[in-house]
Amino acid sequence: MSNSDPSSLSYEQAFAELQTIVTSLESEDHPLEQSITLFERGQKLAQHCAALLDHAELRVQQLTEDEMAQ
User: Fold this and answer.
1) What stretches of 5-31 show up as alpha helix (H) in DSSP?
2) Pick from 17, 14, 37, 36: nearest CA to 6
3) What is the DSSP letter of 52?
4) d(CA 15, CA 46)
5) Which of 1, 21, 27, 63 is a Cys-bridge partner for 42, taking CB atoms 3.0 to 4.6 Å apart?
């Protein structure tokens, strides 16, 4: 698990780390505090991924609108 700021990660990097965290939480037995820390990191990564996807969707919409306007 990385301690870097999620906003500095690409979508692919953030999603891969999020998958690792989910797998770890589902399959391993962690102390409560570590589980909470992993969950918090996962939440931040999920929010970052969602924001990147929203931004990409907006860009696609703008491109589509520009294309239709021509």
Assistant:
1) 11-27
2) 14
3) H
4) 8
5) 21
25-70: per-residue pLDDT in tens?
A: 999 999 999 999 999 999 999 999 999 999 999 999 999 987 788 7
Phi, psi of 10 (to 5 degrees): -75, 165
Q: Count other Cβ atoms within 10 Å, centred on residue 18.
A: 20
Q: How far apart are CA 68 and CA 7, in angstroms?
A: 33
Are 15 and 50 contacting, i.e. CB atoms less than 8 angstroms apart? no
Residue 12's CB is within 10 A of a number of other CB atoms, namely: 10
Question: How would DSSP label each residue in 24-37?
Answer: HHHHS---HHHHHH
Cα torsion 23, 26, 31, 33 to 10°: value is 70
**Other CB atoms within 10 A of residue 70 CB:** 4
